[in-house]
Design brief:
The protein has helices at 13-28, 32-41, 63-87, 98-103, 139-167, 174-178, 186-196, 226-248; strands at residues 44-53, 106-107, 115-122, 201-209, 220-225. α3 (63-87) packs across α5 (139-167), α3 (63-87) runs antiparallel to α7 (186-196) and α7 (186-196) packs antiparallel against α8. The protein contains eight helices and five strands. It is α+β, with helices and mostly antiparallel strands and 257 residues long. It has a five-stranded antiparallel beta sheet. The longest helix has 29 residues, at 139-167. β2 and β3 (115-122) form a beta hairpin.
Length: 257
């Protein structure tokens, strides 16, 4: 299939590109949607979040529930990016802006038959790396990989803590406090518990895929069942109280009559 290099002068450029994908689909005996997804994932890390919910009708899901999943995904990404930023060497962070990372995320295709929210974080074409290099021009791009690694670790830590509490003592939430160094905090727990606040949601899944460029990182899958949501909601309150006290407590000498 010949694809014109100048789309302005060639009116059938889009049709030719679609023909190329269809040809590849027939040759590889693969669905065209899978081909397009593979092309996107070739140069991008991705976060795929999915909710399993009781639908009123097949293929229909309340907009409020869908919106909670999108909000949860973005909130967990912001929290993980903030944690990753604070763990970096100060020499490497001067050109990294968290807002640039969040604004650079792109929504990907969903899947037929279930509600899936996919976010792509593009990596640099040249010299991608897990960690930003000193005085590199690719701080933001390399940071996106580090942020998604932090996201996977923090989500896995929340799930591990919730399972431990469920199996031992649901009222003892100290494991969440001990996991703060892994990025666990009240904001992360709030985002996850917020999805579980929808009564029809039975399960929340995250699949974090890393492109096969740069430093190899294995794909991560983290699943939250409904019996964990209540514990995570309790952890949100448990972790928020010390955070609030830290910002409201005044120290110093008292001067007065």
């Amino acid at each position: 299939v010949s694809i014109p290099s100048n789309e302005v002068s060639a009116g059938d450029a889009l049709a030719r590109k679609f023909e190329a994908v269809e040809t590849l689909s027939r040759t590889e005996e693969t669905d065209t949607r899978a081909i397009l997804t593979a092309l996107l994932e070739a140069r991008s890390d991705s976060v795929r979040s999915r909710i399993e919910a009781k639908e009123e009708r097949p293929g229909f899901l309340r907009l409020k529930t869908a919106n909670s999943l999108i909000g949860c995904t973005l909130a967990t990404l912001r929290t993980a990016a903030s944690h990753a930023w604070h763990t970096l060497d100060s020499r490497l962070t001067k050109d990294i802006h968290l807002s640039d990372f969040v604004n650079g995320l792109r929504m990907g295709p969903t899947e037929i038959g279930s509600f899936v929210f996919t976010v792509y974080a593009a990596l640099p074409v040249e010299k991608p790396s897990l960690f930003p290099q000193p005085f590199s021009d690719h701080h933001e791009e390399a940071f996106s990989r580090l942020a998604l690694v932090a996201l996977a670790n923090s989500l896995d830590s929340v799930r591990t803590c919730a399972r431990y509490c469920l199996e031992n003592d649901p009222t003892d939430l100290r494991p969440f406090k001990e996991a703060e160094s892994a990025g666990v905090n009240s904001r992360l727990c709030k985002a996850i518990a917020g999805v579980g606040g929808n009564v029809e949601v039975q399960e929340l899944d995250f699949k974090i895929h890393f492109a096969k460029i740069g430093t190899p990182v294995e794909e991560r899958k983290i699943q939250f069942n409904r019996d964990l949501f209540e514990i995570i909601r309790g952890a949100e309150d448990f972790l928020r109280e010390p955070e609030e006290k830290r910002f409201t407590t005044l120290t110093g000498k008292m001067v007065g009559n």
